[in-house]
Design a protein that fits this description.
35% of the residues lie in helices and 25% in strands. It has 189 residues and is α+β, with helices and mostly antiparallel strands. The structure holds adenosine-5'-triphosphate and magnesium ion.
């Protein structure tokens, strides 16, 4: 079974590799329209128009050719969306950023499960102290909105240094996964 969260981690990784300072993610079930919308928008380097087409080819990657000859993140996400009878889009502008989106029917039997979205968000936030994230996850399985920007503002000039302190990591875990350190889930205490 595919997990959407794993695809999202790959897409977010692309944003980080492109030097994004802000990554916004929406995973929103629209019950009325009967679709799931997945959108990831970043303010990274973007790509010139010619590169966008190439980026969808699995044999194209800007990663050092010596290490890696194929790039699969985008083609795999596109394939996932299209195999669910959905629509994949990518818009990118050099120097501005990139928006990748997939919209597919909610009732499709082939659709992936959400997977560990909390753990994915936690890994992104905890692992990237200088990058801001805004997450909106609204599905039957999860309802979470989280923005690192007010957190950073509240922490002040030392935010990046404090980001990975034990107290902050504990707090991020609680906020993003709903779990306390001992594995007890919020509300069950
Ligand atoms: N958000 C983005 N901003 C700028 N460039 C991007 C972005 N996403 C993808 N690209 C470009 O498209 C190429 C292909 O992306 P894709 O995710 O398919 O493969 P990859 O990241 O190179 O390798 P893999 O995902 O398999 O580790 C990237 O190498 C990069 O040049
Ligand atoms: Mg990638």
């Amino acid at each position: 079974m595919y997990e959407l969260s794993a695809f999202i981690l790959d897409l977010a990784q692309n944003s980080l590799t492109a030097g994004a300072r802000l990554v916004k993610l929406w995973v929103v079930a629209d019950q009325q329209a009967n679709v799931l919308r997945v959108t990831i928008a970043d303010n990274g380097s973007g790509m010139p128009a010619a590169m966008v087409d190439k980026a969808l080819d699995p044999f194209v990657t800007s990663k050092a050719a010596r290490k890696k000859k194929i790039g699969l993140g985008l083609p795999l996400f596109r394939q996932l969306v299209e195999s669910c009878c959905g629509t994949f889009r990518i818009r990118s502008r050099q120097g501005i950023g990139t928006v990748v989106s997939g919209v597919y029917p909610l009732d499709n039997v082939d659709q992936p499960v959400l997977g560990d979205m909390g753990g994915t968000m936690l890994a992104l936030v905890a692992g990237n102290p200088r990058v801001d994230f805004r997450f909106v996850v609204r599905t039957p399985e999860s309802d979470k909105t989280f923005d690192t920007r007010p957190v950073r503002e509240a922490l002040g000039p030392d935010a990046a240094a404090l980001w990975q302190s034990p107290d902050m990591l504990k707090w991020f875990r609680q906020e993003l996964t709903g779990e306390y350190e001992d594995g007890v889930v919020k509300g069950e205490r």
